[in-house]
Design the sequence.
């Protein structure tokens, strides 16, 4: 890994970390998510400092270039993250649906009651 | 038997008034609930002109299944023993409600089929008919019951079926053969009887064109998932 590559990777990781922390500070990002993203920044840093580990993993999965390893894991991570978000989204839409149905049910009942009150 | 007639409605201003007018003399003592799925036309106003009809407005467009489920929840909470659900577009003939309820004495879910009716043949596009046949075949293989018209929205449900349908299993868009399979897996009896159906007044069919493909795939996956779920 050349010096330039290292400087670039470290800068990216730090920038990423700062952005994530700032988002969490401004309550734009929940802390549970900031943990995940901080770990990602740490992983980028780790591959810079401990380049040999990347080479070992590269050999292990049968890739030729270390960059391939990075890309494969990057894409896989994004894929799983998207599935995770779909799960969250399903949860949220189910909750919103239940809330909305509950609201409608309560409004109907109130109408019933006011009708009988009037009689 | 305390029965509720449930009509999910999304932009049905043209047909729903006439339907409610027909229901009134036929079933004067049966309460009617219209679930207005955030219609953008005057459905709310038209239904409001029928004082005997209970109107439930949903705050946003939830989809056919979401509106139906809201109605089921109402029925369960108000202590109804049975629900007859029908579309608000005038396709389902109210005369058949009595037959559905009669059949409910020996079953938990009664599907009203447009194909079993020999007197009046129902016309539909070839793709849609093919889709219906495939779903029907699926139902026969998986639950061993002959259901010729699993996409029918004209159904009667017992209290037991209602209590199952208000749970989170229920699909939001178009409940179909997957729901029947779910009911069957919970040991509820599913059956089918002939009903009178008219072609819808004015509606873009939900089973047309590219949607057929999406719908078929969704139904396949949905059925698979329903079969894998623990009862």
Sequence:
């Amino acid at each position: 890994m050349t010096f330039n590559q290292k400087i670039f990777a470290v800068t990216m990781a730090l920038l990423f970390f700062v952005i994530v922390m700032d988002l969490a500070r401004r309550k734009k990002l929940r802390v549970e998510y900031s943990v995940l993203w901080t770990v990602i920044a740490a992983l980028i840093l780790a591959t810079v400092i401990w380049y040999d580990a990347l080479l070992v993993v590269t050999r292990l999965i049968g890739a030729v270039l270390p960059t391939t390893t990075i890309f494969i894991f990057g894409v896989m991570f994004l894929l799983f993250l998207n599935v995770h978000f779909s799960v969250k989204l399903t949860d949220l839409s189910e909750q919103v649906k239940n809330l909305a149905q509950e609201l409608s049910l309560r409004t109907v009942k109130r109408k019933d009651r006011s009708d009988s009150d009037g009689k | 038997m305390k029965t509720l007639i449930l009509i999910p409605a999304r932009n049905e201003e043209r047909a729903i008034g006439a339907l409610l007018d027909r229901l009134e003399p036929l079933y004067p003592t049966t309460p009617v609930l219209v679930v207005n799925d955030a219609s953008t036309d005057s459905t709310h106003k038209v239904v409001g002109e029928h004082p005997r009809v209970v109107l439930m407005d949903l705050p946003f467009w939830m989809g056919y299944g979401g509106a139906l489920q809201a109605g089921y929840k109402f029925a369960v909470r108000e202590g109804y023993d049975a629900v007859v659900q029908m579309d608000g577009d005038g396709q389902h003939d109210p005369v058949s409600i009595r037959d559905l309820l009669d059949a409910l004495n020996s079953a938990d879910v009664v599907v009203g089929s447009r194909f079993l009716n020999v007197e009046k043949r129902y016309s539909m596009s070839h793709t849609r008919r093919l889709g219906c046949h495939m779903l029907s075949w699926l139902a026969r293989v998986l639950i061993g019951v002959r259901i010729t018209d699993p996409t029918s929205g004209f159904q009667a449900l017992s209290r037991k079926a209602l209590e199952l349908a208000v749970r989170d299993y229920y699909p939001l868009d178009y409940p179909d053969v997957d729901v029947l399979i779910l009911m069957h897996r919970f040991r509820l009896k599913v059956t089918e009887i002939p009903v009178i159906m008219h072609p819808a007044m004015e509606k873009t069919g939900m089973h047309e064109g590219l949607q057929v493909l999406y719908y078929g795939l969704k139904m396949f996956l949905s059925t698979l998932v329903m079969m894998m779920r623990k009862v």
User: Anything to note?
Assistant: Chain A touches chain B at residues 93-94, 97, 100-101, 103-105, 107-108, 111-112 (CB under 8 Å). The mean pLDDT of chain A is 87. The CA atoms of residues 29 and 82 of chain A lie 17 Å apart. The helical segments of chain A are 3-25, 31-49, 51-61, 66-118.
